[in-house]
Design goal:
This protein has 78 residues and is mainly α. The chain has one domain. Strands 1-2 form a two-stranded antiparallel ribbon. The longest helix has 23 residues. It is globular and about 35 Å long. It starts with a helix and ends in a 6-residue tail after the last helix.
Length: 78
Amino acid sequence: MEVKRRFLFAPALAVVLLAGGIKAQVPDRPGTVLFQVTTPDSAHTSYLFGTHHAFGESFLDSLPVVREKLFLCRELIV
C-alpha cells in the first residue's frame, strides 16, 4: 500500500507545482524566467530563477534585472 501512495503523491505534487508556476508568470511578461515570491505576512522578498541550461552564460548576461537581483541577494541556493 505504501508504494501506491508514493506513486499517487508524485503526480499530485507535479500538478500543484505546475499550477503555481503558471500562476506566478507575470501577465505582461509571458515566458519570464525570474519569479518574485512574496507573502502578505512578511516584508521579505524571494526570487526564483528558472534556467534553461542549453542557453549558456550569454543568456544570463542578456538579462540585466536577473543579474542585479543575483548580485544583491544575501543567500543563493543552487
